[in-house]
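call fold(seq) -> tokens
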Amino acid sequence: MEIPPYAVFVLLLAIVPAQYYLSPRSTSDIKYHLHSAIDSLKSFWRQYRARMLKIDYVEPEEDINAVPLETETDVATTPFYGLGRYLRDRAPHVEFRVGEIVKHHMGFRGVVVGWDVKARAPQDFITKVHKGNKEWSNSPNYAVLIDVRDRPTPQIAYLVQGNLIRDKGRIFHPLLKNYLEHYDDNKQKYLAKPWLRDFFPDD
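ret:
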């Protein structure tokens, strides 16, 4: 049986990134870019299939729940969105820690800089974002600095735990230096600044 040339091309195209992904020496940045490429290919495939089937394809709506903080002063003084300056007792069901890298189900990455055991935000925000989902309101919610490689406009998002998975690699964001010190390659996370550790001592 003869293999069509386009199948050989696709196979060769997939082998190179797969080698980087499977290599034990591969860096987290390479894995990140590989995941981004795979996400782009999936999106292209969905659009292509929809076109071939003559279906109107609409990309899934993004629900990144970005917190509208305009200045560093807002960030420093808000009692909400996982950024409130009060001591957190770590509950067993709080999955992520300050400094850990997370990936949202919509594909963008970020670093945790705060969390609340239950959503702690103005009621209009909870109504708009959680849309009556009480499970989201009663679940841990995280303040996340979104990587500017994924969202060019710097954003802090307040994200529910169920939409996040653990990830690795460095994050780029202009407010990173305000919350975190340096990236620890061994732990695959950022180390919190001393003032932030005071509020999250068990992280």
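The chain has a mean pLDDT of 76.
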